[in-house]
Each structure stands twice: as C-alpha cells, then as structure tokens.
Fold:
Amino acid sequence: MADLDSVKSKMQTFANMAKGGKGYFDEPDGKDCLGKTAFTTKVGTAVGLTGSMYAYLFKYGRMSPAQGMIQGANITLTMAAVGAVFGATTCAVTSARGKDGRLNYFIGGCASGALLGVKSHSYAMGFGMCAGLGGAAALYKHGLMEKWPNQFPEAKN
Structure:
C-alpha cells in the first residue's frame, strides 16, 4: 500500500509541475527527476517555438505555410529534446554521484550539446556545443551556489 501512495505522490508532483505549480528548484537536485525533466522539456519547447517563429519570419520567409510548419516542428522538437536530455541527465548524474555540484550541470549541458551534434551529423558541432552548453550550465550552477543575484526573476502573479 505504501508503494501505491508513493506513486500517487510522485504523479501529483509531476502534475503540479506540468501545470506550472512548481519550479525547477522547489525540490533539491537529484530528487523528482521526472518532474524536473518535464519542466526542462517545457522550457525547451517554449524556446523552440520562439526560435521557430523567428526562423520563419526572418530566415525561411519564402516558404509555404506547410513548409514553415514542418520546419517549425523540427526546431521545436529538437529544442524540447535538448531540454529533456538536460533535465534527465543532470538529475540522473546527481542521483548517481550522491552530491550536488557544477559537474552535474556540466555533464547535463554536454549531453544536450552532443544531441545537437548528432542531429547536425557533425562531430565539431557536438564537441563545440558540449563545451558551450556544459560550460554555461556549470556557470549557472556556480552562480546559484554562490548566491549571485538572479538575472531571471520569478514571474509574479
């Protein structure tokens, strides 16, 4: 019976995060991996939708609407996958290592960058994005650990 209550609790947490009820840092790193992965996937999807809109307006403007939708879906799904890979990898590495730190975020960012390299069929893109996204994620985590001022304030209702 305890297992069923545990599953219900995890599903409720996931549902709250999916609705936007909780943020990424409401649970410590390494806990609630499913919810954190859902959150980073939502962020990646939002970034992908925004990027695909700008790509259609400024880069692919001479496409038909159907071609634009296909290109937009390609960009959006790629960014959603990048967010999911970051969230899942960071949480899994934190759980496996048993400690929180910059290295976990670097590995998550590196895995996300490697995914972009695989998608573009380019080792150079993969290594470059691994270093870039990994470094950016590690720097962000460093700022959190050192209590740097938040450059992205929480939205107020």
DSSP finds five helices and no strands in the chain.
